[in-house]
Amino acid sequence: MAVSSERRDFELVERAYDRSGQVCAEYAKTFYLGTLLMTSERRRAIWAIYVWCRRTDELVDGPNASHITPTALDRWEARLEDLFQGRPFDMLDAALSDTVTKFPVDIQPFKDMIEGMRMDLKKSRYKNFDELYLYCYYVAGTVGLMSVPVMGIAPESQASTESARRGRIYLPQDELAQAGLSDDDIFAGKLTDKWRNFMKNQIRRARMFFNEAEKGVTELSAASRWPVWASLLLYRQILDEIEANDYDNFTKRAYVSKATKLAFLPIAYARSFVRIEV
């Protein structure tokens, strides 16, 4: 009996979601753990979004980054538009193409992320935190807006060292100068008291943003709060690990152990029932 085209399409999409989950598990272990706490449909949708974001980032940070041009990013954006119109280019695109039919996902945050990749091609330094904040929106904040429709809320309501190896410094230039640090200090990777003091200020600000994020978690649908709380607590724990490493981002990678991740799950579960008054 011949296999219908509908059946073939279904099997392709199922394989695409499975592969997306494998990629997420391999490259984003903490994030993947959070997705396992979601409902099956939401989990698969988040995997599909993650894989698209990873592939987009790889355009400028992957092994072929030196060959990427603005024209290549234009082609990637055209491919994104096709994907949203139900014309996926390959198997992994098929997972996201299916996701956007099941959830009211907006294309604009995806386009904005591509704009962030264009910024990577044009500049490698950011004068101050305001400039860096805009860049962070394009390459990271957009992920939240992509995920919002999946998580059930309306949109209204060591990385530094790895980047330095590519000649990019995602740190505010004015704050580096105030700390008495230069680009050469970053590239040299030498741990000094100046660097420690600089990192203390960066961590202080990061914790402030994590605290602000807590308020938003309570606005999510009940089914989504646990995994998001788990992710928030575990990613915030990375700041503690940086401190435990004596602020050495150059030779030590800050990560959260598997035992710690498991220990935080019941804490996140309990938090998911608490509503924070804003």
UniProtKB/TrEMBL annotation:
Gene3D superfamilies: Farnesyl Diphosphate Synthase (1.10.600.10). Its EC number is 2.5.1.32. GO terms for molecular function: 15-cis-phytoene synthase activity; squalene synthase [NAD(P)H] activity. PROSITE patterns: SQUALEN_PHYTOEN_SYN_1. InterPro entries: Isoprenoid_synthase_dom_sf, Squ/phyt_synthse, Squalene/phytoene_synthase_CS, Trans_IPPS_HH. Keywords: Carotenoid biosynthesis, Membrane, Transferase, Transmembrane, Transmembrane helix. It catalyses: 2 (2E,6E,10E)-geranylgeranyl diphosphate = 15-cis-phytoene + 2 diphosphate. It is an enzyme of class 2 (transferase). This is 15-cis-phytoene synthase.
